[in-house]
């Protein structure tokens, strides 16, 4: 297995490349679909049919946006967490989905990326729903690790032979410092997830926003210290800003 990395629209894209198959470690942005195709067919010089599976670590636009379209175009399987219901459900869920799309566009503008269509249908056509400890079908070197907190369905991927773990948005690296993601809907689960990853004693930790990093025990403690004690969510942030406006 070779782990390949390219830059996506606003996040890193990782491929686990084998002689006869390829696993995409996350569902990327909708704007990344053609980039993924061109990398596999032109850079790797492999048929696109070698893309056998796509993992969706959680439902945010830069982690799920390309998955359904990749499946529709190329027939790859979609793998995600075994959690009932949809993340973006009901009226509140729809409002949150729109705000996440706008946030992704804002990040893209900050990164000076061209405007692209990132709108996607926020319901997965998943083939496999996997739980903590399950192995990915046809890629049994990779184990699912539940790392909830950012949302209710985050998973990380642990490559057992090399002890490499892809943690998606469990942490974000900004100016060489680690910070928790936004939002954190479940603070206690988030802290438990950090502890779970540290207990794996990984040789490499890979972030969706920050690349391959080494995280020390002190870094884990720092992340725990920065983690919110109450949910840090879109609505709470909006209420806080509104309250400041009214006070001023």
Automatic annotation (TrEMBL):
Any one Gene Ontology MF annotation carried by this entry is: hydrolase activity
Name-wise, this protein is: MBL fold metallo-hydrolase
Keywords recorded for this protein, A-Z: Hydrolase
- Record keywords: Hydrolase included? yes
Record-annotated Metallo-beta-lactamase domain positions:
10-209
Q: Which Pfam families match?
A: Lactamase_B
Q: Which Gene3D superfamilies match?
A: Ribonuclease Z/Hydroxyacylglutathione hydrolase-like
Top-level taxon = Bacteria
């Amino acid at each position: 297995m070779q782990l390949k990395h390219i830059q996506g629209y606003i996040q890193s894209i990782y491929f686990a490349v084998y002689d006869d198959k390829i696993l995409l470690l996350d569902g990327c942005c909708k704007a990344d679909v053609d980039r993924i195709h061109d990398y596999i067919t032109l850079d790797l010089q492999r048929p696109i049919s070698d893309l056998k599976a796509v993992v969706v670590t959680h439902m945010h636009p830069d982690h799920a946006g390309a998955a359904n379209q990749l499946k529709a175009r190329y027939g790859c399987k979609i793998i995600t967490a075994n959690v009932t219901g949809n993340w973006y459900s009901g009226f509140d869920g729809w409002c949150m989905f729109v705000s996440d799309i706008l946030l992704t566009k804002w990040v893209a503008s900050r990164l000076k990326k061209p405007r692209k269509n990132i709108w996607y249908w926020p319901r997965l056509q998943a083939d496999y729903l996997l739980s903590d400890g399950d192995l990915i079908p046809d890629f049994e070197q990779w184990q699912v690790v539940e790392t909830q907190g950012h949302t209710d369905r985050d998973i990380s991927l642990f490559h057992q032979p090399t002890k490499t773990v892809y943690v998606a948005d469990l942490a974000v690296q900004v100016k060489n410092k680690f910070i928790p993601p936004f939002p954190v809907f479940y603070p206690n689960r988030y802290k438990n997830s950090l502890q779970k990853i540290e207990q794996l004693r990984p040789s490499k930790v890979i972030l969706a926003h920050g690349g391959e990093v080494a995280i020390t025990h002190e870094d884990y403690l720092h992340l725990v210290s920065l983690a919110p004690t109450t949910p840090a969510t879109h609505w709470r942030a909006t209420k806080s800003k509104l309250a400041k406006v009214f006070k001023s």
